[in-house]
Specification:
Elements lengths: L2 E5 L2 E5 L5 H10 L1 H4 L12 H17 L3 E7 L2 E12 L4 E8 L8 H16 L4 E6 L4 H9 L3 E12 L2 E11 H9 L6
Parallel strand pairs: 5-6
Antiparallel strand pairs: 1-2, 2-3, 3-4, 4-5, 6-8, 7-8
Helix pairs in contact: 1-3
The chain binds coenzyme A.
Amino acid sequence: MFAMRIDEGLELRLLEQRHARALYDLTTANRAHLRPYLPWVDKLESVRGTEAFIRSGLEQFARGDGFQAGIYHRGALAGMCGLHYIRPDTRRTEIGYWLAEAAQGQGIVTRVCAGLCAYAFEELGLHRVEIRCHPGNARSRAVPERLGFTEEGILRGVDKLASGWADWVVYGLLEDEWRARNGAGAVLE
Ligand SMILES: CC(C)(COP(=O)(O)OP(=O)(O)OC[C@H]1O[C@@H](n2cnc3c(N)ncnc32)[C@H](O)[C@@H]1OP(=O)(O)O)[C@@H](O)C(=O)NCCC(=O)NCCS
């Protein structure tokens, strides 16, 4: 098992096939909560879809092109996060995440993203980390804003969500900005 400790009670575990049932059940129980912002939710029809997702995440990890991990809060699966890709030439990546509705409001994803930024800049030696959010997703937008990302612009009509074609707000954080904030001890406010 590959795991990354974020802080007391919060850990990321690389998703393996044995996690498929728990991840599928959590996703299914949270369909109504996730549907407005995640295009894949209604395409997931059975645990086989989750197994295929985990398989492709492990292949991605083996290629050195990112990973997909479960977020474990006090030992229980609370959601998911990952690096969608790693571009070695331009040294950049993009973080994705979701939480079960009941796990919100505790700073879990903000702390996870802070940990993933440290991993990206300090361990992987990357130059830029990106987070994309739906413009109407205030809770998601608050995550990069809390961590000092810069709002850089809007990509129009990128994804088809339940409500129709959706724009994405792009947030970016550069290595020197991370170091300036981290050195000042101002990562989490
Ligand atoms: C986006 C999403 C992950 C945000 O969840 P969240 O719980 O609001 O975010 P965090 O886990 O970072 O928690 C922040 C909340 O915890 C509070 N908090 C408590 N301790 C905290 C800490 N140490 N650090 C930061 N925030 C803390 C914050 O004040 C904030 O609460 P508030 O919104 O009432 O002010 C969640 O709403 C979600 O999964 N939504 C559906 C799927 C989705 O939108 N995914 C993202 C697609 S881009």
